[in-house]
């Protein structure tokens, strides 16, 4: 640094450094604001646009074939639970492997079962059922008609009978009942 600058030159240099510093600070503040706001608005407009969010029926082979990780919950974000959930969704199929007699039994039962408001959460295979949504244990007569689902739970949402895996609270099958 030079020691022979006049006081006026020092003040001009200091003010230039302050102006540049403030300019950088304003740009950083604007960028952080954009970073915080843009993803929120995208989430709001794209909230129900998932490929499986309007699924009307289906089942998952992974949910039937793999045991849940220990101490799992539908809100768990551990790699084991997230990976299993991805497997459930990836293995879901659009067709339900129930006989016509099983479907008739489900339809008869669903007519008298308590209803859940269908718009309160995503109804698709692999989706977690919120804890505040009431699910019911599979009754004995329905469990006999659906032996592979006898230990699971169910809910009726609109025109769909939804089978929920008890240990993870995830949807494993959806049967249209209309």
TrEMBL record:
- Provide this UniProt record's keywords sorted from A to Z: Membrane, Transmembrane, Transmembrane helix
- What Pfam families does the record tag this protein with? DUF1236
The answer to whether UniProt assigns keyword Ribosomal protein to this entry is no
Q: Does the keyword Manganese apply?
A: no
Stretches the record annotates as Disordered: 45-85
Q: Which residues cross the membrane?
A: 17-38
Q: Which Gene3D superfamilies match?
A: inner membrane protein cigr (3.10.450.160)
Polar residues bias (residue ranges): 47-63
Protein name in UniProt:
DUF1236 domain-containing protein
């Amino acid at each position: 640094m030079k020691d022979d600058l006049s006081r006026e030159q020092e003040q001009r240099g200091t003010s230039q450094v302050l102006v540049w510093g403030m300019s950088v600070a304003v740009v950083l503040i604007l960028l952080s604001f954009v970073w915080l706001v843009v993803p929120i608005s995208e989430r709001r407009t794209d909230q129900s646009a998932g490929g499986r969010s309007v699924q009307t029926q289906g089942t998952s082979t992974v949910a039937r074939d793999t045991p849940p990780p220990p101490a799992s919950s539908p809100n768990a974000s551990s790699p084991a639970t997230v990976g299993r959930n991805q497997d459930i969704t990836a293995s879901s199929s659009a067709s339900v492997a129930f006989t016509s007699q099983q479907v008739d039994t489900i339809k008869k039962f669903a007519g008298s079962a308590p209803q859940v408001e269908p718009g309160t959460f995503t109804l698709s295979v692999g989706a977690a059922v919120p804890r505040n949504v009431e699910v019911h244990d599979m009754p004995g007569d329905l469990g006999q008609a659906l032996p592979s689902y006898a230990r699971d739970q169910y809910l009726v949402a609109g025109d769909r009978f939804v089978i929920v895996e008890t240990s993870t609270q995830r949807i494993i099958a959806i049967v249209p009942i209309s």
